[in-house]
Every structure is written in structure tokens, then in C-alpha cells.
């Protein structure tokens, strides 16, 4: 229940970021520079740093979000720092780079989830889920941390190709087929596989519900 | 369970240094067992040590 609350909070916050970004430019012209600046304005994080690391695309970890709390000096206030890490091969696939960085930025909108996610048990649970995903097995026991991974992916789509734009596309040309989704993916510069699912009527209805406060 | 033990030792150190939240973007292209997944996580941790840090973006390029 707690993860759904935080998730709902996250998507509400994504909705606010998306609306603020829409004041600056149309969504298909958004870039990481504009999106990151907006996140820095609205989150309670003191510092955001990016780290590009060199691994082969076969390594399944293409991005990481880490949040740190530290006290720079004994009498100084605690600072919150976010480090977003991404694989260097993403520089060759800009749609994935944008998606992964936006997904990780969305985690900075979550209320701090306590230390469960960095406990041994929390990590073991998550790795169990990853192993099932790799085998494309259905997961019927979605843990809080994995639920937040999914919600952050939803948040990334809402930043790059927002719900109101998708509704507008449907109103003008009907539900897009795979060919049309490829064109939309190219225009909004995000991975095709996420565009396809984002036009599902059930998905759109739930996203709208959560973005309005759940 | 060597890879798991290695990752958990790193995690404990990071917690001591102030780590309070950790999330991943996972994009597998084959079936992976837990130990293999921990191995991939350790590889990323090693790569991050030698990684390139930057503060922001110029358009969609690191700046």
C-alpha cells in the first residue's frame, strides 16, 4: 500500500513537471537539458550528479538511481544528493538515453522510501524479480521497490509523450497501430516498445487516475 | 554465492557512506539466474568507479 501511495505521489509530481515543461516548449522538442533543469527546480534534492559508465549492452543494467544522505561537517545540516548512473552505450541510442535518464529522474520525485530498498532482503527480493523478468515469467508478487521501478517507467513516458498528447493523437487519427507508433516514437524520441503500450486504453485510464491523485 | 556476497559487502559500505535509496533500469536479453544478475551489478559498480561524472546536459548530450 505504501508503494502505491508513493507511486501515486510520484505520478502526480510528474504531471506537475510535465505541465511546467509544456509552458517552455512542445513535448517533442524537449531535451534532457530542459527536463533536468526543471527537476532541479522542483525536487527537494540538494545536488544531482550524472555518471556515465562503460559496460557492454549485454549487461542488463542500463541505468541506476542512487540517493545519499550525508552531513558535510559535524554541525552542518544533512544534505541529500542524487547520483544518476547510465551506461555509455546509450549515447549511441538517444531514445533509450532520454528514457533511462528520465526514468531515473522520476525516482527523485518519490518520498524517501526508508532503508528497505538498500537492505539485503530488499535487494534479494528485487533480484528475484529481475530473474523472473529475464525469463519473461509473470510476477504475481510485486514488491514495493519493483512497483516503483514500473511507476518510474510510466513517469518517463509521461514526460516525453504526455497523456494529453496521446489523447489528442487518438482524437485526430484514432488508436495508432504499430506503424503509427513507430512514427510517434521517432517524433518524440523515445523507445518504440514503450510507445506501443502507452496507447492501451486501460493503461491510459489508470495513468490518468494516478496523475489526478489516485 | 560469491557475486551476491561481493555485492552485499559493497552495499553495506555504501549504506555506511549514506546510501538510502537504490533503483535500477534492467533490460535483459537472456534468461539470467540470480548469481549472474549479481555479477552484472558488480560489473556496473566497478565501471562506475572509473566512470565520467557530469553535472548536466547540453540538449541531449552530456555537459
**SSE string of chain B:** HEHEEE
Q: What's the overall geometry of chain A?
A: globular
Number of helices of chain B: 2
| Helix/strand structural class of chain A | alpha+beta
Main sheet characteristics of chain B: 2 strands, antiparallel
Low-confidence stretches of chain A: 1-6
| Separation of the first and last Cα atoms of chain A | 12 Å
Mean pLDDT over all positions of chain A? 86
Write down how many β-strands of chain B occur, each being a DSSP E stretch of 2 or more residues: 4
Rg of chain B = 14 Å
**Total helix count of chain A?**
9
- Spatial strand sequence of the major β-sheet of chain A: 1-3-2
State the domain count of chain A. 1
**Count the strands of chain A?**
3
Quaternary organisation of the protein chains: heterodimer
What brief labels describe this structure?
A: 214 residues, 3-stranded mixed sheet, 9 helices, globular, disordered N terminus, B: alpha+beta, two-stranded antiparallel sheet, 49% helix, extended
Amino acid at each position: 500500500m505504501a508503494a502505491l501511495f508513493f507511486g501515486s505521489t510520484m505520478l502526480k509530481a510528474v504531471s506537475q513537471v510535465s505541465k511546467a515543461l509544456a509552458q517552455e516548449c512542445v513535448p517533442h522538442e524537449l531535451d534532457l537539458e530542459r527536463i533536468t533543469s526543471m527537476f532541479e527546480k522542483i525536487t527537494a534534492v540538494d545536488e544531482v550528479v550524472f555518471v556515465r559508465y562503460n559496460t557492454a549492452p549485454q549487461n542488463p543494467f542500463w541505468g541506476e538511481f542512487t540517493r545519499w544522505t550525508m552531513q558535510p561537517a559535524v554541525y552542518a545540516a544533512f544534505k541529500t544528493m542524487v547520483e544518476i548512473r547510465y551506461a555509455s552505450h546509450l549515447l549511441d541510442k538517444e531514445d533509450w538515453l532520454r528514457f533511462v535518464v528520465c526514468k531515473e529522474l522520476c525516482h527523485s520525485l518519490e518520498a524517501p522510501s526508508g532503508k528497505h530498498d538498500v537492505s539485503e532482503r530488499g535487494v534479494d527480493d528485487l533480484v528475484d524479480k529481475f530473474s523472473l523478468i529475464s525469463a519473461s515469467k509473470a510476477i504475481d508478487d510485486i514488491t514495493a521497490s519493483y512497483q516503483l521501478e514500473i511507476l518510474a517507467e510510466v513517469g518517463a513516458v509521461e514526460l516525453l509523450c504526455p497523456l494529453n498528447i496521446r489523447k489528442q493523437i487518438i482524437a485526430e487519427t484514432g488508436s495508432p497501430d504499430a506503424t503509427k507508433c513507430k512514427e510517434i516514437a521517432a517524433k518524440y524520441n523515445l523507445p518504440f516498445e514503450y510507445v506501443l503500450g502507452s496507447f492501451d486504453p486501460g493503461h491510459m485510464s489508470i495513468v490518468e487516475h494516478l496523475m489526478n491523485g489516485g | 554465492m560469491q557475486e551476491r556476497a561481493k555485492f552485499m559487502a559493497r552495499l553495506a559500505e555504501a549504506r555506511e557512506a549514506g546510501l538510502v535509496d537504490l533503483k535500477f533500469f534492467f533490460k535483459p536479453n537472456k534468461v539470467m539466474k540470480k548469481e549472474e544478475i549479481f555479477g552484472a551489478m558488480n560489473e556496473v559498480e566497478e565501471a562506475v568507479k572509473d566512470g565520467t561524472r557530469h553535472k548536466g546536459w547540453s540538449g541531449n548530450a552530456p555537459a
